């Protein structure tokens, strides 16, 4: 098994990653950043997002594992004091995994030879940099509404606990194959009207955001941000590819949600 260990810059993560590498080497695992089968991140959800994008072209060959060194995360369910247990689990590995949906995003430009596609693990968000964003929202190529406001965001089920939640979106169980469309500060009055609530879009549907021409847009794909000129539309659908996690034990999703946002069940395990 070829294992990559990737840590964020926090001193604790660097220390935990060094300890983990040592234990993995003792157990005769091959440590490499080149074409790994397993990627272990040490840090937070942000560290896993980074690693996901580093290996985005090798997703079919990789299973991820997240060790958290701060608060419990959604992609990071191993704790820093469980390294021995993690190494033992890797030794007994029989390729068990759980996979979650990703978004396939196409940025469509006036010159369509410049079109680009991306995968997102959490979400894609588009905002107008200078003024109210105006966009027609089409679902399955059919006009649904004309949006005016700060922006629009489409998230995965695992992204539903990230930016989507701050926008008032629902928390979605990651086994649900769907995506969620959220508004960012929509203008709703007698003149302008959009739905005003999050929408859950089925896996065989796609969303197209037809943007006003001649504007500058900021496009966020997870933690990656770009400024886009000459953008005409953005198409978002569930991707064929999925992210795979090595699953050596079951983590109860709703307990994790409670732990992250409420905390009342802590100590009752
Ligand atoms: P960041 O500082 O790396 O992340 C912001 C926070 O979001 C961190 O606390 C991070 O957890 C947490 N997070 C990331 N993915 C999550 C998930 N799936 N479920 C629950 N929490 C999650 O910010 P960034 O680099 O700009 O962007 C990375 C992601 O952060 C974005 O994809 C976006 O979803 C989220 N974000 C949220 C807001 C907001 O809620 N207003 C604003 C900006 C970004 P860790 O501390 O464990 O890394």
Automatic annotation (TrEMBL):
Cofactor(s) in the UniProt record: a divalent metal cation
First-level EC class: transferase
GO annotation terms (biological process): NAD+ metabolic process; NADP+ biosynthetic process
Subcellular localization, as worded in the UniProt entry: Cytoplasm
Keyword Nucleotide-binding: yes
Entry keywords, A to Z: ATP-binding, Cytoplasm, Kinase, NAD, NADP, Nucleotide-binding, Transferase
Alphabetical list of SUPFAM superfamilies matching this protein: NAD kinase/diacylglycerol kinase-like
Gene Ontology cellular-component annotations: cytoplasm
Catalytic site positions: 45 (proton acceptor)
Signal peptide: none
Annotated family: Belongs to the NAD kinase family.
Name of the protein: NAD kinase
Classification lineage: Bacteria, Bacillati, Bacillota, Bacilli, Lactobacillales
């Amino acid at each position: 098994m070829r294992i990559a260990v990737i840590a964020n810059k926090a001193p604790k993560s660097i220390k935990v990653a060094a300890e983990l590498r040592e234990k993995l080497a003792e157990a005769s695992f091959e440590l490499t950043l080149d074409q790994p089968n397993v990627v272990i991140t040490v840090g937070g959800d942000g560290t896993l997002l980074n690693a996901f994008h580093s290996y985005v072209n090798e997703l079919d060959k990789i299973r991820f594992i997240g060790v958290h060194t701060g608060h419990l995360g959604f992609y990071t369910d191993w704790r820093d004091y469980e390294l021995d247990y993690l190494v033992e689990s890797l030794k007994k590995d029989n390729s068990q995994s759980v996979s979650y949906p990703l978004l396939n995003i196409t940025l469509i430009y006036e010159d369509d030879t410049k079109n680009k596609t991306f995968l997102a693990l959490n979400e894609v968000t588009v905002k107008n940099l200078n003024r109210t964003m105006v966009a027609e929202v089409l679902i399955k190529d059919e006009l649904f509404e004309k949006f005016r406001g700060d922006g629009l965001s489409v998230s995965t089920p695992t992204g539903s606990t990230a930016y989507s939640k701050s926008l008032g979106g629902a928390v979605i169980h990651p086994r649900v194959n769907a995506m969620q469309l959220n508004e960012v500060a929509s203008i709703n009055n007698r003149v302008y009207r959009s739905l005003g609530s999050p929408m859950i879009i089925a896996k065989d549907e796609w969303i197209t955001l037809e943007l006003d021409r001649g504007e500058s847009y900021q496009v966020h794909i997870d933690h990656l941000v770009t400024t886009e000129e000459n953008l005409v539309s953005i198409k978002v659908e569930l991707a064929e590819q999925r992210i795979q996690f090595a699953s050596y034990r079951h983590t109860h999703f709703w307990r994790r949600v409670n732990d992250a946002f409420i905390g009342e069940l802590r100590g009752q395990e």
